[in-house]
Amino acid sequence: xxxxxxxxxxxxxxxxxxxxxxxxxxxxxxxxxxxxxxxxxxxxxxxxxxxxxxxxxxxxxxxxxxxxxxxxxxxxxxxxxxxxxxxxxxxxxxxxxxxxxxxxxxxxxxxxxxxxxxxxxxxxxxxxxx
Length: 130
Description:
This protein is an all-alpha fold. It has one domain (about 1-130). The protein is built from six helices and no strands.
């Protein structure tokens, strides 16, 4: 957050780091994933003009994270799972605002075909955000 809009200078490398951390579970407390979601949220807030061109990659990674968190049957406590889902949902909402509602349009088909309640609830929150 100290860099502000200057983060765009490092966006390509930062995106690779963020995607890498989102893909891999780091144990029951998921400290790295929670921290990287906070980093992503801060990045979206500061570099919002550059987010539309990264929409496809970030949307795919966040949706995969939602599904992985829902479907993983590891030792991760429920409050940690809920925190991951909440932060990923917040990132999707921010991404939607940066992209003038394109996330909602892209998620419309996913929401209607998703049968998993927790994932569906996250997608509903994105759809209902203003």
